Amino acid sequence: MSLLELTARQLRDGIAAGQIKSIDAVTEVFGRIDAHDPTIGAYITTFKEAAMESAFAVDARIAAGNPIGPLAGVPIAVKDNMCMQIGSTTCASKILADFRSPYDAHVIEKLTDADAVILGKTNLDEFAMGSSTENSGLKQTVNPWNTTRVPGGSSGGSAAAVAARLCWAALGSDTGGSIRQPASFCGVTGLKPTYGRVSRYGLVAYGSSLDQIGPLTRDVTDTALLMNVIAGHDQRDSTSVSESQASVPDYLADLEEPIQGLKIAVVSHLNEGAETEVADAIGAALQVYKDRGAELVEVEMPHFDYAIACYYVIATAEASSNLARYDGVHYGHRTTDADDYVQVYSKSRAEGFGAEVKRRIMLGTYALSSGYYDAYYLKALKVRNLIRQDFTKAFEQADCVIMPVSPTTAFKIGEKTADPLQMYLADVYTLAANMAGVPSVSIPCGFDKVGLPVGLQILSGPFTEDRLLRIARMYEKQTDWLTRQPPL
Ligand code: GLN
């Protein structure tokens, strides 16, 4: 059997037991990357030599009987907006195309400490702004299930890499859905943890009050495995939550235990906004839970519909401030065609940023400008609070909320690029979790009639990822969606 058939957990256990060599996994996956990534376009860079060295080191440690970490020898991909000393950290932007980070992000240190093997950096929408990875300034990524379709975004490279078996698991970042929506489009599992659960140190900032790093994996067990490695306090991120505020559980410990008396909140008016095939798949998934004894509770989330408007004010405002540092002086691309220092700034930015990033910087700068701050940014923050309260009330009545991840399955490449507003609407179901800071997972729950995956979104209260993953696992065990693979 090919090692690529194994989950990360199975591979790790085989390596730890000395039955599998990490170097064999790395060799096999690079064979597959060489064969298929020219079509899929998941990776911006790969680190073959470094990966082989790490794999040899893990194998040697195991042979010598030395202790090993929880991801020993497992090949993992990382979205290219997380700083790493080796290679470049591009954010899929021309402005950072040659940027070499002098330090590793917190999550990279955690992966390395856990003895994972990092294969390379994956493609994304430039600075994580987008829902299809078509905004990448460097390359195109396609959906492994159908190469005329987008992989979703912005973590489209990570999702495509996991789906196409070009790695065993990957990290993504989610500001408004960028882990969950591509997970849904590519038929993999993607978790956005609670804001503050995973350190953002070394994650290139987009919307700082919304950004969270999380895993994209083949199944829920692998998500739990990765969370065990990346979750936890880091003093270098002031929004990282301490152990005393919310301790980090062992996400694998009770994963197989179903939740007794599970109560699921549903918001009927929301599900109606999805395509019929998506809505039907969600309905069927709810039935699976009911058959397992769960109770459905109808709740209202009256402010949910304002999430898009609110997000595109807050995220763009924060982006305009975060992206001010790319000016051709501090670091990044500098124009060679400037007569004075004002032109250094303006031309470096004009040449380096793509259209969507410029659009958002303009929107955000406008929203923060004097006279408009109160009308837009402050108002959006107030609405954000109301959305958060909707969730608080829902979680008083139920253990989780279930809804679609996206109103559609993966759309065609080019279908929405001419109309940014249509693209923004693709995020209607995912943004609210970032507004409220709550954890949310996307798991496969079926296929549409042209064979594209549908995702189920499950949301729960702050810092309850352990229960959230148990709820997801209950469903996963009852279904066989994971046995299907993209036709490569
Ligand atoms: N699709 C959303 C956007 O375009 C979310 C992006 C993200 O989560 N990084 O901003």
Which features does this protein show?
single chain; 488 residues; alpha/beta; Amidase signature (AS) enzymes; eleven-stranded mixed sheet; 11 strands; 39% helix; binds glutamine
Summed over residues and divided by their number, the pLDDT gives a mean of 96
Please summarize the sheet with the most strands.
Answer: 11 strands, mixed
Number of strands: 11
The shape, in one word, is globular
Structural class: alpha/beta
Number of helices: 16
Q: What is the topology, as strand order, of the major beta sheet?
A: 1-3-2-4-6-5-10-11-9-7-8
Straight-line N-to-C gap: 17 Å
N-to-C order of helices and strands: HHEHEHEHEHEEHEHHEHHHHEHHEEH
**For the record, what CATH class of the domain at 3-257 and 458-483 applies?**
Alpha Beta
- Rounded Rg: 21 Å
CATH topology group of the domain at 3-257 and 458-483: Amidase signature (AS) enzymes
Instruction: Give the names of the bound compounds.
Output: glutamine
Query: Low-confidence parts, pLDDT < 50 over ≥5 residues?
Result: none
